[in-house]
Design a protein that fits this description.
Strand content: 5-15%
Mean pLDDT: 89
Strand order of the largest sheet: 3-2-1-4-5-6
CATH architecture of the largest domain: 3-Layer(aba) Sandwich
Oligomer: single chain
Low-confidence stretches: 1-6, 9-21
Largest sheet: 6 strands, parallel
Distance between the termini: 39 Å
Order of helices and strands: EHEHEHHHEHEHHEHHHEHEEHEHEHEHHH
Length: 454
């Protein structure tokens, strides 16, 4: 893809919305991000667009991902919290995953507590301490994992907050909190599942939010966060494609606008250390045979991902398909039918593939669907089961829980998505998705408008 690609055409809308309030020229936006790369990249995309418009933007991200923001061109980047990749992919984490469930639970709780403590300390140092560098912000944009802290900071500083979501993970009547189990339920029943999930989440984590609020001098809260966001009128940008959830945009309205999946502009993405389709070794391999199956299980290495990779590559070879494996995985010895790389430029590489198999992260799902690839998702947790359910429900792929994956089930799943009907449906869906430049521009318009209103 080049800069002149229609997905990034200069004729696409950009700049502040022509109607309604506009943000002040000196506007300072802090974008607070936490999680893996899939949680970070949408916020970085938004930062680049706001920065292009002349806004001052500071991105706060985990230490292992500040380089990503810096390399693509974000001017002001600050580390916050723990190195998530190091914590969950360390030798200690791998050892814990091989022990009994109680040991795994203890390790997870300890890591989460350490992460919260470091995150809270860094937030206070950045926004509230004496001579805090971000005390002058006009707006906070926060990822889903940061929204409780973001709301507390916004109240303490008296500024606007916008949530940047990459999945429909709040109350609605289109998809339930347990997507597969509730697929045939009524809209009212689906909404109830979200209210129950909100109460369970509050019971498990509310103490932690209130501990932070007390620390910064705010009163404790007594109910689930989603209800408080709605009562406050907080705008929650939905950075995914409305084509995948028919009727959701009409139900949610302007406080939860669906803008489409965000992606990096090509000229910024080229600054990353990623393999593209023009890399000599990969280009030669791609041209030497049929389009391969693209396989990745995300940026977090784990024994479960390695086992899944073995199942999928063996299944693909049984079907006579070549495999392009991307990411930090421990693979079996490669042969002429398997090519192993690190990080890849999805927009460049995926159009050369026949199908995709991955873990179901929102960013990877967006990239494979935008490329028109039939997709098999092997979900584990978080929003991954949601995307697995959607690709199957839309007729553009298959879904298998990673914990249930075998070589035989992978073979069946791959065979099903490589049929002509699924390939045709995936290609059609790609033509109906929102181009990423329009998505990013719409998200930036919303942030500027919210600051102008306040």
């Amino acid at each position: 893809m080049t800069v002149s690609d229609p997905l990034w055409s200069s004729s696409s809308p950009s700049g502040p919305a022509p109607d309604g309030p506009t943000a002040p020229e000196c506007m300072h936006v802090a974008i607070v991000l936490y999680g893996s790369r899939g949680d970070i990249q949408p916020g970085v995309c938004l930062a680049l667009e706001l920065q292009r418009r002349g806004r001052r933007v500071t991105v706060l991200a985990p230490p292992n991902l500040t380089t990503l923001a810096d390399e693509v061109g974000v001017d002001h980047v600050m580390p916050i919290g723990l190195d998530e990749r190091g914590a969950w992919s360390s030798d200690e984490a791998i050892a814990a995953s091989r022990r009994n469930p109680l040991s795994r639970w203890r390790f997870a709780i300890s890591t989460i507590r350490s992460g919260f403590a470091a995150f809270d300390d860094d937030l206070i140092g950045a926004f509230l301490a004496e001579d805090a560098p971000l005390a002058d912000v006009d707006c906070l944009v926060v990822a889903p994992l940061c929204q409780d802290r973001g709301l507390a900071l916004a109240d303490r500083l008296g500024v606007e907050m916008v949530v940047l979501r990459h999945g429909p993970m709040s109350e609605n009547g289109v998809v339930g909190a347990l997507p597969r189990a509730t697929a045939r339920w009524s809209p009212a029943a689906k909404r109830r599942t979200w209210r129950i999930a909100d109460r369970v989440t509050w019971a498990a984590t509310g103490w932690n939010e209130n501990a932070f609020r007390r620390r910064i001098g705010l009163p404790a809260q007594r109910g689930p966060l989603p209800g408080r966001l709605a009562a406050r009128g907080t705008c929650q940008i939905q950075a995914f494609d409305g084509t995948l959830f028919d009727g959701l945009s009409a139900e949610w309205g302007p406080t939860r606008p669906i803008v489409g999946f965000l992606d990096l502009p090509p000229e910024n993405r080229r600054q990353l250390d990623e393999i593209d389709a023009d890399s000599p070794d990969l280009a030669a391999w791609l041209s030497a045979g049929d389009p391969p199956v693209f396989i990745t299980f995300g940026s977090m290495a784990s024994p479960a991902h390695d086992a899944a990779l073995r199942c999928v590559t063996r299944a693909a070879r049984r079907l006579g398909r070549r495999c392009l494996v991307a990411g930090d995985h421990r693979t079996e010895p490669a042969d002429d039918g398997t090519f192993v790389v690190g990080a890849v430029d999805h927009a460049s590489v995926l159009p050369h593939c026949a199908a995709a198999v991955h873990h179901g992260g929102a960013g990877t799902t967006a990239a494979t669907l935008r490329a028109g690839l039939p997709t098999m998702i092997c979900a584990v947790t978080a929003d991954q089961p949601l995307w697995a359910h959607r690709v199957r429900a839309m007729g553009v792929g298959a879904a298998i829980r990673m914990s249930a994956l075998t070589e035989d089930s992978a073979c069946v799943g791959l065979g099903s998505i490589l049929t002509m009907s699924v390939r045709s449906s995936a290609a059609d869906l790609a033509t109906r998705m929102t181009p990423p430049n329009r998505s990013v521009a719409a998200a930036a318009d919303i942030v500027e408008e919210r600051v102008g209103v306040r």
